[in-house]
Automatic annotation (TrEMBL):
Name recorded for this polypeptide: Sulfite oxidase-like oxidoreductase
Domain Oxidoreductase molybdopterin-binding: 35-179
Annotated region (Disordered), positions in chain: 1-21
Superkingdom: Bacteria
PANTHER family: OXIDOREDUCTASE MOLYBDOPTERIN-BINDING DOMAIN-CONTAINING PROTEIN, PROTEIN-METHIONINE-SULFOXIDE REDUCTASE
Species, as recorded: Microlunatus aurantiacus
């Protein structure tokens, strides 16, 4: 059962060039979840990267924070048609986690606490396009927004920025995640309104 908060009524598209077709700008940060909100303490949190060959690398919370940290200012766009402009995040680029990984994989499945998954092309996680984000607007990321850490892939619809992230499995084939198995697009480009399959 999905949990929906305010911010989802249909509205006219905003004329701002930063807003994709069919979207409206909100000042709120609406919450949409496919189930209950997991509560993960940072002393229990870890992130595991698994290659298509089964090789594993794991980072604890303190190990993640010891990596180079980026400040990200970006617009985000939800498939439910809201856009939030100039959001501020702090996180670790996936480029640091993927550095040195020998892989021929083209895709990744993102695993999350609570059982949620989503799929992404590996190219969309590299080149400064994706982060493990742990702060929003200069504060620790709240649990309802995916804290202690979520994936941040702002050039795609926000369901691809999976909340409560805990791992990444590299894959040679594209496998649908939770929302993709339930009718959402395999990719989710807001500029082409690539919402549903």
């Amino acid at each position: 059962m999905a949990v929906v908060t305010r911010g989802f009524p249909s509205r006219r598209r905003d004329p701002d060039e930063r807003v994709p077709p069919g979207q409206y700008v909100t000042e709120d940060f609406p919450v949409l979840s496919a189930g209950p909100t997991p509560r993960i303490d940072t002393d229990r949190w870890s992130f595991e990267l698994v290659s298509e060959h089964g090789e594993r690398a794991t980072w604890t919370w303190s190990e993640l924070l010891a990596l180079p940290i980026d400040k990200i200012e970006t617009d985000i766009h939800c498939v439910t048609r809201w856009s939030k402009l100039a959001t501020r995040w702090r996180g670790v680029s996936l480029d640091h986690l993927l550095a040195g990984v020998e892989t021929s994989a083209l895709y990744a499945t993102v695993d999350c606490y609570g059982g949620y998954t989503t799929n992404l092309p590996l190219a969309d996680l590299r080149g400064g396009k994706a982060w493990i984000a742990y702060e929003f607007n200069d504060r620790p990321l709240r649990a309802e927004h995916g804290g202690p850490a979520r994936l941040l892939v702002p050039h795609l619809y926000f369901w691809k920025s999976a909340k409560w992230v805990r791992g990444l499995h590299l894959q040679v084939r594209d496998e649908p995640g939770f929302w993709e198995r339930n009718g959402y697009s395999m990719y989710g480009d807001p500029w082409t309104e690539d919402r549903y399959s």
